Amino acid sequence: MTHEEMERSMDFILKQQAQFAADIQKINETIDKHNETFAKHAEAIVALTGLHGRLVEAQVRLTEAQQEHAGKIAEWAEAGKRTDERLDALITTVERYISSRNGGRAAKPRRRRRTG
Fold it and tell me: How far is it, in rounded angstroms, from Cα 46 to Cα 43?
């Protein structure tokens, strides 16, 4: 190999070495950017996981409250039925009383006086 050929080979090797170094630098920069993005995504995942946990807790509390309200509504419905039954019994008693005072006839409805 001549001196000139050896210099061209060394020049080629140096250029390749410089290109490899530049390529490696670009790869390292890309890896750094990916690592930053990954870290941001990991933070977002942690935040979302915490939010999800709070949402689940809130839903559990809402479900418990709904069940409690459903129970109260059922109690009120039952109390309303008992009130209706007692009111019906009172109406029947009053109607019998009025009928007995009118000789068995139904009472005539009274007209209201108009004011004004």
Answer: 5
Nearest to 91 by CA among 102, 107, 77, 68: 107
Distance (Å, whole) CA 58 – CA 66: 12
> DSSP character for 102?
T
Distance CA 63, CA 43 (A): 30
For residue 98, what are the contacts with CB-CB under 8 A and spacing of at least 6?
Answer: 106, 107
* Model confidence, pTM: 0.51
**Rounded mean pLDDT of 63-79?**
96
pLDDT at 54 over 80: yes
Mean pLDDT of 9-23: 96
